[in-house]
């Protein structure tokens, strides 16, 4: 049987839509750091434009999950907090929320999903072809140490 | 055909209801209804409130980058843009006939995209409306409600979509930002292990897709009066057709039929699309309004997508889907079905077809071949066209001697359906809102009509909290009377 990495990090966003790139940029930085630290075997890094129902299947067999996304409905620079299965209807778009992914897990996989958190970094502008805004770039720098610390704490829960 | 309800005579005297943005629809759409003092609908419009800037995003880039870059135009159908751009660039590099392996790898990718997109739309976005009714409480219309009542349906929806995504991952190399198709061919074929990964599940998937067709049909049969009339209006159809008149989602020539089903034009090569299709700009929307040149702006608009394709072709080249197509044609009674909700039924027929085609391709040894690329005489202009999940997708580029894109024109599926969606919501508004107080359930009828077309208005942006739904009710002076917000 194939052994899965203990932790899944799911970052969503479009790298070509301004601050929507925050998630992919943090994921790329995380990938480089894990490589340099020799920790890649413990993490599966998943990037997508949007969270979708099938991402629930990516959580199977994990010890923990972290979602990373850009956000507007929160104060800068970022929030990092647990997220729980949420059946509250979403009315956004084809995409679903991290809580909805966990709820889909319950129904499709069965049982409780792994403990999950959401790192949401404040973005300001999302135009096609725009670069990361200066404010979002500042927020990214502030979020990065928190992301590293979060991963270190995760690793303390397993035998590394 | 009429533009009745597009523009009111005295809009300044009317009160305004805005659905902003349309929920569970990709991008930034807004519906406004102007009502008079008796709550009579006087004007209905679907606005696209975000400027896309697609062409500007692409111009000036080297042509070989374009198939990768265009995936970032849309988070829902990046594969369709990837393949349409690749087909246009095939022409640019003189690759007018791909190797069998290259064409079949691309088709596998495309059928994977059709499957995952159609599964998401039916099982996740529309089943709540269809299963629970448009007036049901808003919480029950979500997939959560579907899952509670039909748990197996929700599970299958996820797994069918996952299967389609796997076909994309295996052919494109990655889940997103793939580079599978390149100008002149593809950069990889399948290994035996990759083929077998898909092969072990494909028969189960075909069975589930067939069940989904039957579920869509049964929904129609439970309430034919409503399903056969909701959001109905008559129009022309258009889609690509294969060389023998069959449904072909990847390649072919354009055929259009009129509202009675008679062929209006046929055999139009993709490169000649501009001779037959023009686009009108209207001041109240960023999305253009395409029309057939021969019929003019007022009468020349048309529908694209599953409902058009399934009725436009002479056959479907996969046995189970073709049997379902014939059932659908029989149900329609020998004349074209124009009801908006019939999109769902035909969408499921196409999903079954895509699954069958994937199965056939997986048994084809060409998928494992190594002859991946062709080249030919370089030209300066190319048109790539395919049938994306939502309808005909056109990519047209000009490239200069320095290999940079100097001209880009994209007509995406949702743009083709722009007038059709406007007509659908006007029909619904006339039927369900006229003279009545506005309720959430009634407003949802408008959204149901739009969702039937599965529009993708300008996607790829997803940020938490970015897409609340706000409904505003204003009096004739523009004062805010009430506001409803979903987030």
Would you give an account of this structure?
The complex is a heterodimer of chains A (about 160) and B (about 475). Chain A is of the alpha/beta class and about 160 residues long. Chain A has helices spanning about 20-35, 100-110, 135-155, and strands at about 5-10, 45-50, 65-70, 80-85, 115-120. Chain A has one domain: HybD-like (Rossmann fold, 3-Layer(aba) Sandwich). In chain A, α1 packs across α3 (about 135-155). Among the domains of chain B are: about 10-50 and about 430-485, no CATH class; about 100-230 and about 355-375, Cytochrome-c3 Hydrogenase, chain B (Orthogonal Bundle). Chain B is built from 16 helices and 16 strands. Chain B has helices at about 55-60, 65-70, 80-90, 100-130, 145-150, 150-170, 190-220, 225, 275, 295-300, 305-310, 320-330, 340-360, 415, 420-435, 440-450, and strands at about 15-20, 30-35, 40-50, 180, 185, 235-240, 255, 265-270, 275-280, 290, 300-305, 380-390, 390-400, 405-410, 470-475, 480-485. The longest helix of chain B has about 35 residues, at about 100-130. Chain B is globular and about 70 Å long. At the A-B interface, β2, β3 and α2 of A face α1, α4, α5 and α6 of B.
Notable traits:
heterodimer; A: 160 residues; alpha/beta; Rossmann fold; five-stranded mixed β-sheet; 3 helices; 21% strand; globular; B: 487 residues; alpha+beta; Cytochrome-c3 Hydrogenase, chain B; four-stranded mixed β-sheet; 18% strand
CATH C-level label of the domain at 98-232 and 354-373 in chain B? Mainly Alpha
User: Sheet bearing the most strands of chain B, described?
Assistant: 5 strands, antiparallel
Low-confidence runs of chain B (pLDDT<50, min 5 residues)? 19-27, 458-471, 483-487
Radius of gyration of chain A (CA) equals 15 Å
Low-confidence stretches of chain A: none
Strand count of chain B:
16
Helical element count of chain A? 3
Question: Within the CATH hierarchy, at the fold level, what is the topology of the domain at 98-232 and 354-373 in chain B?
Answer: Cytochrome-c3 Hydrogenase, chain B
Shape of chain A: globular
> How many domains make up the coordinates of chain A?
1
- Largest contact between chains: A-B, 45 and 53 residues
- Quaternary state of this entry equals heterodimer
Spatial strand order of the main sheet of chain B: 3-2-1-15-16
- Assign the CATH topology of chain A: Rossmann fold
Summarize the amount of helix of chain A as a percent range. 25-40%
Intertermini distance of chain A: 20 Å
The mean pLDDT of chain B is 85
What is the helical fraction of chain B, as a range of percent? 40-55%
The largest sheet of chain A has its strands arranged as 2-1-3-5-4
